[in-house]
């Protein structure tokens, strides 16, 4: 397996202690251009040709500059999101014996309930309880609480459709046909995972605890909402920016597979979860990825002149298993797909 040496990663500085990522005030409290980008989903789907063209261009800039943006006017009911949070709270509150078969399951199990990231690897050092369940092509769901299955099925279908439409627009923003990325990644039969996160109050030293360390996501696109308590931070220009959503908005996070398929043009966003001492926090994730057996490689049309392709093809199942079985460390997992490029005198590109 060809690998590159991991790039060193220095944690970015926290801006002003508590940076503000709310549009209008700017991510650094300065001008609005520093704010987290906003994508109007309704314009992408229903706008005029000119409106949609501008929205696609803005979406491309968001993917290139941030790898992270907010989506508004998405059509996913707020009541459905609230029902999902309540069902997850009920699950986390169940007696251990009613969750036993899924507790600390192996990384590729279709249902996992646990703490930390993967406790066997990280020793549950991080302050998080979670539920992970495969949602597509088949929904896997704990038996209790009984209402969780129907809620999860509806939520996964609505968010999967939205993420697939975002992938179409992202493909266009790269100068490709709208369906090109979907075709390359077999998104019609995509793999989807749902994750419910519960971050308890921080009772250790200092004002903040680490709920989840700095990392990028193994999939293509991650959709996230939280329960009104901030805690998601994204790295931008070497600094941590606190992600403060507009009411009802989702966050979208570019994952490793987008960086690979775009040949490095769009970067996977490094992000983390922090928790304060006063409030517990919940967030919920819907992530779409290539089908498990898809070999993900850059779209050939995006080879950079003089540099060629930055990544080799890796089967998504193998990539996910690697990332999920190792400690989270920024974007280290991408090194299993990254080529070491050397141009020879004839202009050829070799890798090893």
UniProtKB/TrEMBL annotation:
Family to which this protein belongs: Belongs to the iron/ascorbate-dependent oxidoreductase family.
Domain of life: Eukaryota
Keywords: Iron, Metal-binding, Oxidoreductase
PROSITE patterns, per the entry: FE2OG_OXY
Fe2OG dioxygenase domain sequence ranges: 186-290
Positions in coiled-coil regions: none
Designated name of the protein: Fe2OG dioxygenase domain-containing protein
Matching Pfam families: 2OG-FeII_Oxy, DIOX_N
């Amino acid at each position: 397996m060809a690998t590159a040496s991991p790039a060193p990663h220095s944690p970015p500085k926290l801006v002003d202690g508590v940076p503000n990522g709310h549009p209008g005030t700017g991510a650094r409290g300065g001008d609005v251009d520093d704010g987290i980008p906003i994508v109007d989903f309704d314009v992408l789907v229903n706008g005029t040709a000119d409106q949609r063209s501008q929205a696609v261009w803005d979406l491309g800039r968001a993917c290139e500059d941030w790898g992270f943006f907010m989506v508004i006017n998405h059509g996913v009911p707020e009541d459905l999101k609230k029902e999902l949070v309540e069902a997850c709270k009920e699950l986390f509150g169940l007696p251990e014996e009613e969750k036993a078969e899924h507790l600390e399951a192996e990384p590729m199990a279709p249902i996992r309930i646990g703490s930390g990231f993967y406790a066997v690897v990280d020793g549950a050092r991080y302050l998080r309880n979670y539920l992970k369940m495969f949602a597509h092509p088949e929904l896997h769901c704990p038996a209790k609480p009984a209402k969780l299955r129907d809620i999860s099925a509806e939520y996964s279908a609505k968010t999967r459709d939205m993420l697939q439409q975002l992938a179409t627009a992202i493909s266009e923003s790269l100068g490709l046909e709208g369906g090109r990325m979907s075709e390359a990644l077999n998104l019609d039969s995509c793999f989807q995972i749902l994750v419910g996160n519960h971050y308890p109050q921080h009772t250790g030293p200092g004002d903040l605890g680490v709920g989840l360390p700095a990392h990028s996501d193994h999939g293509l696109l991650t959709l996230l909402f939280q329960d009104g308590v901030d805690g998601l931070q994204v790295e931008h220009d070497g600094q941590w920016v606190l992600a403060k959503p507009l009411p009802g908005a989702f966050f979208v996070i570019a994952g490793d597979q987008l960086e690979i398929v775009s040949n490095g043009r769009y970067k996977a966003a490094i992000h983390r979860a922090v928790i304060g001492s006063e409030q517990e926090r919940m967030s919920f994730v819907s992530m779409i990825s290539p089908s498990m057996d898809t070999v993900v490689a850059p779209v050939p049309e995006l080879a950079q002149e003089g540099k060629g392709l930055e990544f080799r093809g890796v089967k998504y199942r193998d990539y996910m298993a690697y990332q999920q079985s190792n400690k989270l460390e920024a974007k280290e997992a991408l090194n299993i797909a990254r080529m070491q490029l050397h141009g020879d005198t004839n202009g050829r590109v070799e890798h090893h």
